[in-house]
Amino acid sequence: MTVELRRGRASLAFSFLVQGVTFALLVTRIPAIQDRYGISDGLLPVFLAAVPILAGVGSVGTEWLVKRVPPSRVLRWAQPVVLLALLGVGAGDALWQVGVALGAFGLAVGALDASMNMLGVSLQRTYGRSIMLGFHAAYSLGGIVGASMAWAGAHWDLSLFVSYLPVVVVLLPAALVGSRWYVDAVAGGDAGATGEGKGGGPVVFKLLLPLCLVMTFAYIGDSTVSNWSAKYLQDVLGSSEEVSTVPYNVYMVMTLLGRGLGDLGVRRFGAVAVVRAGSVVGALGFAIVAAAPGAWTGILGFTVLGLGLCVIVPQTFAAAGRLFPGASDAAVARLNVFNYVGFLIGSPLVGALGDAWNYRAAMLVPMVLVLATLLYARSFAPGADRYGDGHERARTADVGRGSNGL
Known about the structure:
Elements: H1 2-27, H2 30-37, H3 44-65, H4 71-91, H5 95-127, H6 132-155, H7 160-178, H8 205-235, H9 241-244, H10 246-269, H11 271-291, H12 295-309, H13 312-323, H14 328-356, H15 359-362, H16 364-372, H17 397-400
Helix pairs in contact: 1-4, 1-5, 1-6, 1-7, 3-5, 3-14, 4-5, 4-7, 5-13, 5-14, 6-10, 6-13, 8-10, 8-12, 8-13, 8-14, 8-16, 10-11, 10-12, 11-12, 11-16, 13-14
Transmembrane segments: 12-30, 42-62, 74-92, 98-119, 131-154, 160-183, 203-221, 273-292, 298-320, 332-353, 359-377
Protein name: MFS transporter
Domain Major facilitator superfamily (MFS) profile: 208-406
């Protein structure tokens, strides 16, 4: 079982990494995608909104699907579709073609995100300690790799297809091979596919709501970085296209650093303190971006922002799994929808405010929403976060036996 857990943890981390590469290659080349297909500034928010809407549909469908097949199987086939859809974005030359490719990307990424986090939550329960931030750190590492590739593509003026093809050729078969070692919920340790929660009842939305709001606020902030950082640097701070790829890269570097240390922070200080600190630091980053006099100060703001936001989302997924230990798959799938609600609100909101007012002022809106996370930080309290502060560790010793040192 120890070997199985080790392989399962490594293979799932690799899946997170692959998704980080894929997503970064898409979002950091939005200006290039816009130019290639002649998408107007007015139409761009529509395309950016369509992807999270379809991803939400994919996440809801995954909740239904995992009642019939294990999450590992959903992830095994969703990831190749996401990679092929990315290639499709770079291969077309007509507006309808990029629309189809982005639609497929959205549906598949919803299933991928939901199933990845389902497996992460169940593995954390089996380990009996916080490991969820580590998976998201792998995603951040992938984001750094993808953003660096995007920078190289912009620097050497490569077409989108030429930039994307080697990535898909390498990562698609690697992801399929790695999927052989995914670990689903341990028998008897998780009834996630049953749709039942505490005491065998259904997932109660009222109990899940605070976490849904936190997820929404976090992804409004994250979508602002992923969808608008490049454009903000070019149009507001006057950078080149090459430099405009840097903010997302440094943002992901800081999320890697924060998440790499985050599990230790959660075990030492508890999730409430970590989430509160992340909210304050994230809001500070948005304030720096809004006030930045030039490109490099703006990049500093996005750097600070990454260090703050990075801890919130993994802890929200983990808290949902612990809140409904008998229905973690259902809870994660429903919570994951608010990932896309955040993207759906954040992308057009910042764009609309930027067009109607100015983009500097638009950055203050996600700043306020990230600060609002402080109102719900008690949702991560020790009573729900039994692995975060070390309480009830003895109760989980049998479950986690054999996993020490992994």
